[in-house]
Specification:
about 240 residues; alpha+beta; globular
Length: about 240
């Protein structure tokens, strides 16, 4: 046997020891960046949407107003409805806006949130801000119309607002019914199509893919709003039996 064999050793690549703390920190950093990007995208969408709504409200209010005083009053009320939504969003941007609160806030703005005059029935529904803004404007128009011509214009008038989840052609929908009673109306009377009709029939359709059905009877007006029950509109909804 040869006696001059050189000794040798195997050289293995050095491995850096795992550092769990750094791994967790890096993952947390990526999550934070993702959340920040999502919040920024949502903010950009909301700003664009709010600017579009403001321009539309300003222009349409001018077209449907008969005087400068009428224009100022209408514009102030409509911007106020949007401001109430924004105040709720600012308090907790991720919480969603409660449909019940959206309705009661609008009724309270004209001192009509008395449970004797207005009855609200429905499950807990939390809306995304992008859906709450046009819906709040629609509720404002219904409330203003009731104050001028409908159930809130007479002591005997009553309003019932109910909402529920249903299914149509296999797709879930949210149905909101606004019913006024105790007021005398002439269904055959020719009514001018004002801003309220535009909001209900055009804006809700464009922004939420919603449907609005208005009916006049001798006892009062009814309005049914039908919204697709999607993640884009509803953040969460209480289960119904």
């Amino acid at each position: 046997m040869p006696t001059n064999l050189r000794s040798f050793r195997t050289v293995l690549p050095l491995e850096r020891p795992e550092q769990p703390g750094l791994t967790v920190a890096a993952e947390a950093g990526r999550n934070t960046d993702d959340e920040r990007a999502a919040l920024l995208a949502e903010l950009q969408h909301r700003v664009r949407n709010m600017l579009w709504l403001t321009r539309m409200i300003t222009r349409r209010s001018a077209e449907s107003s008969e005087s400068l005083e009428d224009y100022v009053a209408h514009l102030d009320g409509r911007l106020g409805a949007m401001a109430r939504v924004q105040n709720t969003v600012i308090r907790d941007p991720r919480a969603g806006l409660d449909l019940w609160s959206l309705i009661t806030d609008e009724l309270a703005s004209v001192q009509a949130d008395d449970p004797v005059r207005a009855r609200l029935v429905g499950p807990t529904v939390l809306l995304h801000a992008r859906a709450a803004e046009p819906l709040a404007l629609a509720l404002h128009e219904l409330t203003t119309n009731a104050l001028k011509y409908g159930a809130l214009s007479t002591p005997t008038g009553r309003i019932a607002v109910t909402w529920r989840c249903a299914a149509r052609q296999g797709a879930p929908i949210l149905m909101i019914d606004w019913t006024e009673t105790g007021v005398r109306l002439d269904p055959s009377e020719d009514r001018r199509r004002g801003f309220g009709w535009i909001v209900l029939e055009e804006m809700l359709t464009y922004q939420l893919e919603a449907e609005a059905q208005l009916n006049l009877s001798p006892d009062g007006m009814t309005c049914r709003l039908v919204l697709p029950l999607t993640d884009r509109i509803v953040r969460s909804m209480e289960d119904q039996d």
